[in-house]
Design goal:
Structural class: mainly alpha
CATH architecture of the largest domain: Orthogonal Bundle
Number of domains: 4
CATH topology of the largest domain: Cytochrome Bc1 Complex, Chain D, domain 2
Radius of gyration: 25 Å
Number of helices: 21
Order of helices and strands: HHHEEHHHHHHEEHEEHHHHHHHHHHH
Strand content: under 5%
CATH superfamily of the largest domain: Cytochrome c-like domain
Distance between the termini: 87 Å
Bound molecules: heme C
């Protein structure tokens, strides 16, 4: 391992080793506070507390921050869009908003003075119930006002700086979902949570050429920058058909499912800011609804976990004992042979200090176990390769980060580690990720949909066509005048 990542991992190990004493938990996130809302207080009215829950369920904090001061960049193919201050500050926030203004912003993407960009998920909030908006409004008035503008301001290139263009976009793409027929009341609640409040589709539904939801492929998986939000329809081969409703509940509550799945990156944030706080009834409703939607099969197949092929933990205490694990690691490195470029040596040197010799990690230090995870079992290696290249930013400010290795490993080495991980910890019978695959994944930009890519050009062509039309019309009128 190169000095920087070594230092980083030592630093993180140093900071977290104080918590290593606790025994027994094999679910890193199980230690997270369970469903007690930090912003609910008995001193507040019932309406305000209901609003606090809606804010959690609609995950306003993911973008506006836990203190609602905004400034988070939402990366889009058109450029970064920054969230705004929504504290009750009169000058910098929404202190002058009426309930009607909030309703317009949430449901129609219309702030009092301008149209909003759909980086604010109003295409999903479109279906929010009036009573929920009322509660949210009451609650937002009770959060501390912060008289400060976010550090960054949105500044998109022409023609996207013309906010009125969103009217046309909204006409095509809002609302982003339709309600299904024949659902039970529980499933209807789940549908409301998934489609409207939690806006799961903003990440999990692929986009069409205008960047709206591709409704035919509802929740069937989408690329999100370096992350991939997988297919969460009940398809057996590419979705989560093999998950029970309880599995879905556990995953959304704790951010992981032992030896099956882990919520990293943007999903880790969704769990940390939002789903871990939902009531059991609401998580059950989501699970029940996700089982009732149409299964969509995609090319990105995910192999079933072959438990027999997974490694066994060295022993329980190793997984929880950093010092013992360090000795084991040194022994394993020595045993892996002289070639420092063998897949095993590469894994041990680059990943082993955090994820352990056999992939079980160090749960008490929040180094996630990676054995059996869906992200290393997919036909498509892109998600795993992206994780190795770019790392994982911890989803809460106390969780450790995983550094990216793009600058330290060459494509051959990344491919080699990916194959080692997929076969040894993913239980796949073989894996043939090549250096060329790694290069393709590393250089893949976020492909811009056609309309976005050529919008500037189209806008100019549109303006020229409009001018020509006007000239033709004026000519025709003049001709008529001359020859009445
Ligand atoms: C996925 C990110 C995201 C989430 C989630 C989100 N917002 Fe926003 N919001 C934004 C962005 C980005 C903007 C600025 C958009 C723009 O500049 O056009 C914004 C703007 C707003 C505005 C307009 C403020 C103004 O300028 O007058 C309001 C009000 C607002 N959000 C409220 C909320 C509330 C309430 C929630 C939760 C129910 C929420 N937002 C959830 C990203 C988000
Ligand atoms: C901000 C984007 C985002 C939002 C919002 C989001 N997800 Fe995810 N989701 C992801 C990403 C990215 C992953 C992959 C995580 C990983 O591999 O570490 C994921 C993974 C998952 C998985 C695991 C699938 C598997 O095969 O391992 C499930 C289940 C899931 N999400 C359900 C949901 C539900 C239900 C919602 C709404 C309540 C939701 N997600 C909201 C981005 C998101
Ligand atoms: C400095 C410690 C550290 C090192 C070194 C490290 N990781 Fe990680 N890794 C983490 C942490 C921490 C997480 C969980 C991040 C989070 O909470 O979202 C993680 C998560 C993962 C995940 C789960 C991603 C998901 O969300 O599905 C995979 C797979 C992974 N690492 C593979 C690797 C591989 C392969 C290497 C070696 C190239 C490696 N890691 C090196 C700390 C590390």
């Amino acid at each position: 391992m190169k000095p920087l990542s070594m230092m980083l991992s030592m630093l993180v190990i140093g900071m977290t080793s104080g918590t290593v004493m606790a025994q027994g938990s094999n679910v890193a996130r199980a230690t997270l506070p369970n469903a007690s809302l930090p912003n609910v207080s008995p001193a507040n009215s019932e309406l305000v507390n209901r609003g606090a829950y809606i804010a959690r369920a609609a995950d306003c904090m993911a973008c506006h921050g836990e203190d609602y001061t905004g400034g988070t960049a939402i990366e889009t193919p058109m450029g970064d869009i920054y969230s705004t201050n929504i504290t009750p500050s009169k000058r910098y926030g929404i202190g002058d908003y009426t309930e009607k203004d909030l309703k317009n912003a949430l449901q129609k993407g219309r702030a009092p003075t301008h149209m909003l960009y759909p980086a604010m998920p109003y295409p999903s909030y479109h279906g929010m119930k009036d009573e929920d908006i009322k509660a949210l409004f009451a609650y937002l008035q009770t959060v501390p006002a912060v008289d400060e503008a976010p550090k960054q301001k949105t500044d998109l290139p022409f023609p996207f700086n013309i906010r009125a263009l969103m009217l046309g976009w909204n006409f095509l793409n809002v609302p982003s979902t339709e309600n299904r027929e024949g659902l039970s009341p529980t499933q209807q609640r789940g549908e409301y949570l998934v489609n409207n409040l939690e806006h799961c589709g903003t990440c999990h539904t692929p986009r069409n050429s205008t960047m709206g939801f591709d409704k035919e492929k509802y929740l069937s998986g989408a690329q999100l920058g370096h992350w991939y939000a997988p297919n969460i329809t009940p398809d057996e081969s590419s979705g989560i058909g093999s998950w029970s409703e309880q599995d879905i509940i556990t995953y959304l509550r704790t951010g992981e499912l032992d030896q099956r799945a882990y919520a990293g990156g943007p999903m880790g944030e969704a769990v940390a800011h939002s789903t871990q706080y939902l009531t059991h009834e609401d998580l059950s409703a989501i699970a029940s609804y996700l089982k009732a939607i149409p299964a969509v099969q995609t090319d990105d197949k995910v192999s079933a976990v072959d438990v027999a092929r997974l490694p066994t933990p060295i022993n329980d205490s190793i997984t929880h004992d950093l010092l013992a694990q360090k000795d084991y690691l040194a022994q394993a490195k020595a045993g892996a042979g002289n070639s420092s470029n063998s897949p095993e040596s590469l894994y041990l040197a680059t990943c082993g200090s955090c994820h352990g010799i056999n992939g079980y990690g160090q749960p008490d230090a929040q180094y996630s176990p990676i054995v059996g995870l869906s992200s290393i079992r997919r036909d498509n290696p892109d998600a795993l390769v992206n994780i190795i290249l770019h790392g994982v930013v911890g989803s809460t400010n106390t969780s450790p980060i995983m550094p990216g290795f793009a600058d330290q490993l060459d494509s051959e080495q990344v491919a080699s580690i990916a194959n080692y991980v997929r076969v040894n910890f993913g239980g796949l019978t073989d894996s043939d990720v090549s250096a060329a695959d790694v290069e393709r994944i590393a250089s893949a930009g976020n492909e811009q949909p056609f309309l976005i890519k050529y919008a500037g050009l189209l806008a100019i062509i549109g303006i020229i066509v409009a001018i020509l039309l006007i000239i033709f019309i004026i000519r025709a009128i003049m001709r008529k005048r001359r020859h009445p």
